[in-house]
Amino acid sequence: MSKKGEARGKKLTSVFSISHDKDVDGLCAAAIVARYAKQKNLEFDVLLTDYGSFEYAFSKVAGLRDTLIVVTDLGLDENYLDAVEKGLSRAISQNCRVVWLDHHEWSKEAIKTIIQLERKPIVKINHDFCAAEIVYKVLMPRDLISGELAAIAHDTDFNERKILAANALTDAVSVIRFSAIDKRHDITDSLKPLLFALSENGIAGVWDSKRKKLRDNLLAKQVHHYRKDKAKKMKKAFAGHCDQEIKELLVRIVEIPSGVTTTDFGTYLANPDNLEIDGKKYKPADLLITLSQGGMLGFRRSGEKALCNAAAKIFKGGGHPYAAGGEYGLYDDFGAVCADIFNTLSKDTSWITEESG
Ligand SMILES: [Mn+2]
Fold first, then answer.
1. Ligand 1 centroid, distance to 66 Cα (angstroms)
2. Cα 181 to ligand 1 centre (Å)
């Protein structure tokens, strides 16, 4: 009791950001948290992580004291609950506070577990925005650069692709991540220069709007190379696609080549210009399913006739109506997987948007 009372009286001295390492949303969210720390004159440190590494991330958290822990762009479910609860409880007992801002699907159990922790953690989950937008609104609503970072993240997370700089940033994050994984370097350390450039100067810190180029010449070159290589791989992968109509909706399944993200491939295959093989033109699919080598499924759509989240649910996953993820499992025969998925989606048509008045 007395220990707790003691802790309560002490001021917070730093901010620790835990954010998603995979994309621009996670990075921009962390950059806004860094701006918040600077504004409040608090020290700042960051850990960028992904699902599957929560145990490591939250074991680090258990060592923190007098720190505001801000978790962003990461959803929570039963799989990681124990590790997260343990790390956060420990930190809270050492005078830390917790703010968790996210836009993914959470289980009720997970929400309950976090808000029931001591010292009233703040948990805000809103599916209408990307994570960086929520961080901007909650922590830095009057800050112009934070607003700009939130807009960049929105453009990529909702796959609008209207902002050139946001596209470049998306590819830059992929280049840096893939190269770090390849060389077994720490992903957070590898992304830090980009993160701090963004938090200090906004998109102008990394992007030269006059030359329409990334400021870092080496990174710009790597991105250019990555794009060329990616386009080649995606073209080849599309040639191996399987199509089937289910209730007048075109369902397409493709295998994702290594080094290409679901979002990249989804965007590529939404563009009719890319849907040509040997002079034959194909139309964009109402429901596009990407299969990764590890057996993970991505769902994207063109138009609004299909519900990606409902389709993903049939395959142990979830997400948004316009983008979702699920799991098939390990496989070796792509043709057999396609037949199986088409069969499953013909039997359960809950993923087809009902046109009820
Ligand atoms: Mn996000």
1. 28
2. 21
In the reported structure, the alpha carbon of residue 134 is separated from the centroid of ligand 1 by a whole-number distance in angstroms of: 10
How do the domains of the chain map onto residue ranges? 2-203, 234-347
- pTM of the model as a whole: 0.81
**Straight-line distance from the first to the last Cα atom of the chain, in angstroms, rounded to the nearest whole number:** 60
What's the CA gap between 286 and 279, in Å, rounded?
22
Cα-to-centroid distance, 29 and ligand 1 (Å):
9
Q: Give residue 157 CA to ligand 1 midpoint distance, Å.
A: 6
The tens place of each residue's pLDDT in the chain, 357 residues long, gives 444 444 456 899 999 999 999 889 999 999 999 999 999 999 999 999 988 889 999 999 999 999 999 999 999 988 889 999 999 999 999 999 999 999 998 989 999 999 999 999 999 999 999 999 999 999 999 999 999 999 999 999 888 889 999 999 999 999 999 899 889 999 999 999 999 999 999 999 999 999 999 999 999 999 999 999 999 999 999 999 999 999 999 999 999 998 888 888 998 999 999 999 999 999 999 999 999 988 999 999 999 999 999 999 999 988 889 889 999 999 999 999 999 999 999 999 999 997 433
Q: Which CATH class name applies to 234-347?
A: alpha beta
Q: Strand order in 67-72's β-sheet?
A: 43-49, 14-20, 67-72, 97-102, 122-125
Torsion of CA 109, 111, 113, 115, to 10 degrees: -150
Q: Right CATH number for 2-203 from 3.40.1350, 1.20.5, 2.60.120, 3.90.1640?
A: 3.90.1640
